[in-house]
């Protein structure tokens, strides 16, 4: 795929860029499988009481959710890739695959995350048998994946479905195995261990150029349902702990959120969070640290 730059016919066009969708089977045509769609109800960042729990959310374009198969439980059955499509709900591309008709399953078609290089006509399979080879798109448990391979859509609990490395361009590296545990190096540089029975899909997630796209104008953020972010320093004291003061003022305190919780430098992960012991090495601190 590539990035398309428009002619600077306006201020928004000058700095904006979009994907050329060359990795999609039908660029410019968006016709998803209707049997795999479900409506999305917008919350505007509010909970069931109507109270705003996430600020600066609301509006945006209407979307239908594509039901993605993160579990890949049809073992030993080869599926054919019908098309690679755009998904408005995620940064990665998705692939529509079709299994042979089976009475056990209502729908022979399903969506999966498309790895880099997948195209229409390819065949994918999941399971633990010898027929499942370690090639992009195939799903298998970590004990069967060769060391050093890049994987995505990795489970944290066997049978629960893939939870990590699902966004565009992401992949984890299987670096070691010991007894019933597999050691993964995450894109952030974090090293964590998961059960060898957890499944993962071979390859990296598609659309790696997503990070290079520039929105160009504020309106494109509004289309995504994101409203302007107001600085606390520009508010009144009643609205924010950092508000008020004569002229521009740093308020004499540390940066914090509306509820007074420190927003920079503090650790946000709970010490007693389940799974914390599975992290062998934390990700490097700092926004611009390179992952190793």
Automatic annotation (TrEMBL):
- Region named Disordered: 218-292
UniProt domain Large ribosomal subunit protein uL2 C-terminal: residue ranges: 134-262
In alphabetical order, the GO MF annotations are: rRNA binding; structural constituent of ribosome; transferase activity
Q: Which UniProt keywords apply?
A: Ribonucleoprotein, Ribosomal protein, RNA-binding, rRNA-binding
- Where is this chain compositionally biased, Basic residues type? 219-230, 280-292
Q: What residue ranges are annotated as transmembrane?
A: none
Whether Ribonucleoprotein counts among this entry's keywords is yes
Domain Large ribosomal subunit protein uL2 RNA-binding residues, every copy: 45-126
| GO biological process annotation, one example | cytoplasmic translation
UniProt cross-references to Pfam families, sorted A to Z: Ribosomal_L2_C, Ribosomal_L2_N
Family classification: Belongs to the universal ribosomal protein uL2 family.
The record ties this protein, via PANTHER family, to: LARGE RIBOSOMAL SUBUNIT PROTEIN UL2M (PTHR13691:SF5), RIBOSOMAL PROTEIN L2 (PTHR13691)
Assembly information from the UniProt record? Part of the 50S ribosomal subunit. Forms a bridge to the 30S subunit in the 70S ribosome.
Instruction: Extract the NCBIfam families matched here.
Output: rplB_bact (TIGR01171)
Q: What is this protein called?
A: Large ribosomal subunit protein uL2
What is the gene called?
rplB
């Amino acid at each position: 795929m590539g990035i398309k730059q428009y002619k600077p016919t306006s201020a928004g066009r000058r700095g904006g860029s979009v994907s050329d969708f060359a990795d999609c089977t039908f660029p410019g045509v968006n016709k998803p499988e209707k049997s795999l769609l479900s409506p999305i109800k917008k919350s505007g960042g509010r909970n069931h009481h109507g109270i705003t729990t996430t600020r600066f959310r609301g509006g945006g374009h209407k979307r239908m959710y594509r039901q993605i198969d993160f579990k890949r439980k049809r073992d030993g059955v080869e599926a054919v890739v019908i098309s690679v499509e755009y998904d408005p709900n995620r940064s990665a591309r998705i692939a529509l695959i079709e299994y042979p008709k089976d009475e056990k399953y209502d729908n022979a078609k399903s969506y999966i995350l498309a790895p880099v290089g997948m195209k229409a006509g390819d065949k994918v399979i999941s399971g633990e048998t010898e027929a499942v080879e370690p090639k992009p798109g195939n799903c298998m448990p970590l004990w069967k994946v060769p060391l050093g391979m890049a994987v995505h859509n990795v489970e944290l609990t066997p049978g629960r479905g893939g939870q990590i490395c699902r966004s565009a361009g992401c992949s984890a590296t299987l670096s070691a195995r010991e007894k019933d545990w597999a050691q993964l190096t995450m894109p952030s540089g974090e090293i964590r261990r998961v059960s060898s029975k957890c499944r993962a899909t071979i390859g990296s997630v598609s659309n790696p150029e997503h990070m290079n796209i520039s929105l160009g104008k504020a309106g494109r953020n509004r289309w995504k349902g994101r409203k302007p972010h107001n600085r606390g320093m520009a508010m009144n004291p009643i609205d924010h702990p950092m508000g008020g003061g004569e002229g521009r003022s740093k308020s004499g305190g540390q940066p914090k959120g509306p509820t007074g919780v420190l927003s920079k430098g503090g650790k946000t992960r709970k010490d007693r969070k389940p799974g914390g012991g599975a992290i062998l090495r934390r990700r490097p601190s700092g926004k611009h640290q390179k992952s190793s």
